[in-house]
Amino acid sequence: MAILDELLQSGGGSATLLAAAAVLLLVLLSSALSRQESANEPPGPRPLPLLGNLLELDLKRPYNTLVEVQAKSSLLVFIKSRDVQEVRLGFHSLPGLKEGGGPGRLQDGEGSPGQLRRGVWRPRHLAHREAVQRRARRHLGQRGLVEGDATLHFDQPERLRDGKEGVRGQDRRGISAPPGSHQELQRFLCNGATTTMNYPTIVSRHGFGEAFDTTQPINYAVSNIICSIVYGNRFDYDDPEFTNMVDGMNRKIQLAGSPSAMVYNMLPWLGRKLPENKEFFRLTADYGKKNLEIFSRLRESLNPLLCRSLVDAFFARKQHLEESGITNSHFHDQNLMWTVQNLFAAGTDTTAATLRWSLLLMAKYPDIQDKVHEELRRVIGDRQVRVEDRKNLPFTDAVIHETQRLANIAPMAIPHRTSRDVTFRGFRIKKDTTVYVLLTSVLHDESEWEKPHSFHPDHFLDKDGKFVKSDAFVPFSAGRRVCPGESLARMELFIFFVTLLQRFRLRPPPGVSEDGLDLTPRVGFTLSPAAHTLRALDCM
Questions:
Q1: Weakest-pLDDT range from 241-245, 347-351, 480-484
Q2: Which of 58, 69, 103, 113 can bridge 437 by disulfide, Cβ–Cβ 3.0-4.6 Å?
């Protein structure tokens, strides 16, 4: 059984072995008990008391198990564990996703929408410590940009605006730039891609044509974009404060998707004993301490009339409210901490992972890489890429989209929670049920894609070689809860990918063939490439 294997491999001495024995005893005692189903409960495999379906899951890649069950039984997979209720939504076809109104809504029996709150994880989930969750309020409160229920907008350089109504009256979260700043952001991204990932940087660190691990160079480059937005300045790549924060966040995201984390989410009394979960909590504490030090420095040099960053804008707004006698607002230090952590986790890991997949795929499929190089030379030559070049680079754009589709870095998206009882396709989903949308069931849907499990850029090209969109392309999720950083991520992916391919030809390390490059993802909350090295050869 996967859970017992995980407990034994994680160590923990006699206490862990006793706990494993207790779990085994529980399974034996409960195997004879029958399942008591509620009326119209979503279908799925029979759960065991206390453990639910935990023993049936592939703890390293639970989305694979869920897709298999969905394909065999029905639209929905229902998983329970004591007071933990979860519904995993998988769709046989794209219309099923549209029928639900996207991950942000489920239709009840009378046609009115039931709202799904993003990321309000159950109190015992690993990513949110129990003590924090007990104190957390139902509005944005102490959960930041992703986990909260209110809206927080960075819609002008000098201030933040909070409120229940988002852009155009919709309940959306995001960071939106002020008018006229699009060109400034483009120049910033281009300069960042050029100065941090150019040929001299690779050569000075690794030597001409030598194999190197893409993880840190890509993670640091992407993270510095978020640092500039959040803190108002970039970090040197040799700064231990910066590298420790980025490496620690990368490790946390890996741990959050580990089998130990799943054990904790379902059985916290047992999961908190596992070494990997203890490491997660230690990294969280270290990250918070480092951020408090940075916040303190920024607060000391704050000029409310000249905001340098999101943190400055947050402090300026907080100061203004306090001077007006308002002390009970969303603008408090705990909320700032969660918001910054959300931005770093979502803004660095997802984009960096996608870029690393793109480089690995270019090295594995040299014929496709040659076509990208040819298009870049023909259309933009040696000049700096611009966002508006995308429309003239259909094959390159198709390669980026296909990378996102095949990499499937967030197969179960971000967890949501129903705000009230809802009915979907005749099935009742109770209030406060955690809901996961299986994006992988659409991104790898055999009825939507010619070659769903292969790298095939033609998925996004018509017979004339022009780029075509697909409604089944949902790596950023869909509906009201679509990823708030989608526009920034799309811009980053395009500019970084083109800048790198203008300068480098990616090749496998010495002694490894293209076929020998492994596309099996690393276990984690998001799916990153497994550890590997590549060579970057100058093609200028």
A1: 480-484
A2: 103
pLDDT of 429-457, one tens digit each?
888 887 878 888 889 988 899 999 999 99
Q: What are the pLDDT digits (tens) for 67-87?
A: 776 665 544 555 554 445 556
Q: CB of 196 within 8 A of CB of 492?
A: no
In contact, 256 and 279? CB cutoff 8 Å: no
Average pLDDT over residues 306-327: 91
- Residue ranges per structural domain of the chain: 1-33, 144-538
Judged on CB neighbours under 10 Å (0-12, 13-18, 19+), 1 is middle
Structure tokens of 57? 């899951």
In a 3-state reduction of DSSP, which class is residue 412? coil
The overall pTM is greater than 0.85? no
Q: Which residues contact 336 (CB under 8 A, 6 or more apart)?
A: 295, 311, 314
Encoded amino acid at 467, one letter = F
Neighbouring residues of 187: CB distance < 8 A, sequence distance ≥ 6: none
Q: How far is CA 119 from CA 111, 122, 147, 149, 186, in A?
A: 24, 9, 5, 9, 30
pLDDT given for residue 136 in this prediction: 35
- For all residues of the chain together, what is the average pLDDT? 74
- State how far the Cα of 465 lies from the Cα of 398, in Å rounded to an integer: 10
Of 355, 369, 353, 356, residue with least CA distance to 506: 369
β-strand partners of 326 = none
d(CA 315, CA 295): 9
Q: Which CATH class is domain 144-538?
A: mainly alpha
